[in-house]
């Protein structure tokens, strides 16, 4: 891991070593960011090599093509990253980063691939995290590949696909009658209990769970930041005018901004950074509320309710970082309601051939809103993230559209066979 | 399309032009194969350029990196192909081609991307196909992207994900109380009727459906063949010892063999071709039966029943081609039962971090069988295809494993929150 200089607290700047597992800053519990010696790296890390690395026969093309700015450990990989950038059929300037192409069908694979690779490097045996659904599937998959036990807490009303995949990957799964915030509290309580037991010699220290919650360990950001490297590389090492990103915990947005800083320091890109648009669901919009009120932190969003389960995060741990980045970039935090979200899922299915996840559709619905308000034009270069596969939300989408699962009884038709029009 | 020399009937060798839409051979209804002037191409088409093309900034990496040996039309693309090749965690020689990374979550995207790109080039407005499920989703998605109407017939008991995606992409969907063979017959009957009406001037000719059924139009094979190009490129332009391929209609296996022929003619690869293992479900194993009986054609498999819906093809149209290739390669056609299939889904989830589709698990279960019989060793270089995302089979897998969808009633626990152990 020679490449990593130190871990730095995003709040107080305190520095800690990456030679051993770290969660948050020991001083003020701020999120720890991975810092490299970019001045030294600038001499050796060339963007030309990235494409060459990605094209090396025998490798799968993926996020590890950016190895120069990642921890140098053996990656636990399932083929994550370097997802397609798709040209919209209708809007000249709009391209979609199709994160459904990732393992477990969502962008969560990037962060968990990095976090689990580090956990394996550190020799950790038990990883724990709360999840709104998709992080659970990703953690469970990479933990299975690494021979590590995943302990997962998620709301019991997540899409069934999230429950089945966690089970399929052999995770220790707990369904919670509450929100991800309740899950997070319970993970923290479990670990606090275990640490007491371990301190009292009543439990082996290496059986204490290690928490990989959003922004509470340094490496999920390192995985997610590759979205920023990719979008710049796929645009020919140029910045777009805007990035539209569905925001639950905000790790991806924080990671992309970090990627832009690093790429500028390395001389890989220059010019004006994109406006960062953070998209939420009206039923759970703590960041949109704080942004509108000009606040630097969000408040717990009471009564959070949206069918876009990935956006059901009532109090993001690093809310202040997201708000700061959005404001610095000249972007906005926008909230759209579930009707607009599921209408947009249908619109993009019929007209673009993409089955978006509800979170991705929060971005497309917001894009429509910004076009209507004249804040964006169809020719502006916009990178919009579809953060996951609509296929993980089959029941949710069917429910939102009022599609009955029962097949209508067959009736005879003039031309052979018994058929059922739908 | 200057690159294409002609279309050749796989049965009688009859040649027809690719300048206009073609289905099957006008002489004997044999499948038409796309032939290029490989001698001429050999001078210009270099394998080195392939990687360079794939690595070009601004392009998504995908199957169109093999443009030199594809029709030169504007592709209708959703980011299909160049899927990850994953090293097994347990078997040194085994790598998995993870086709779940494709648009619509399965390998069907490759064939439909090529077929729909050609349909758009020809100016066709209506495409029709029977489907065991996943071809329908792929056809519907690419048709939506191309502004073409897709008319789809599939068994009413396909996974719900297949029904929802077809609807989401705006397809004209008909659910049939029967098998894909019934669906195929109905598509043929519809089109025959339409042609009569068109001939009688009672229907506009351009509203007659064009059939893109398996092996009944030339370009789905061209899309699927890229799996053969990719596996050779990803192994450093070398052949593996064996390829394991779940077989419904067999287009991919036929396509890969075609790719090997083309690559040898172009000087891109040489040496002994891999043994081709064709994998089926015991509940619908027409090819395994014919192979075992030393026959050159299969018989309609009566009472076909398996939860691996993609393998529910009782009489593949090009059965003789699959059998010929498997025999020529020194491979086998193997059938495994549904219990072995869903046990293997669990095994690969827990131990490899991959949620296989049932069809892919027919391949992994067969791999175990060949290891046990000593016909393969763990160090043999084997490329195994997971043809799609297990996420498209959530209900099927849950049913096979006896997982109840209802969440168990919450009970209080000592440490905060109401939780539900699963």
TrEMBL record, chains A, B:
GO terms for biological process: isoleucine biosynthetic process; L-serine catabolic process; L-threonine catabolic process. Keywords: Lyase, Pyridoxal phosphate. The keyword Lyase applies. One of its GO terms (molecular function) is threonine deaminase activity. The keyword Lyase applies. InterPro entries: Ser/Thr_Dehydratase (IPR050147), TrpB-like_PALP (IPR001926), TrpB-like_PALP_sf (IPR036052). This is L-threonine synthase. It comes from Bryocella elongata.
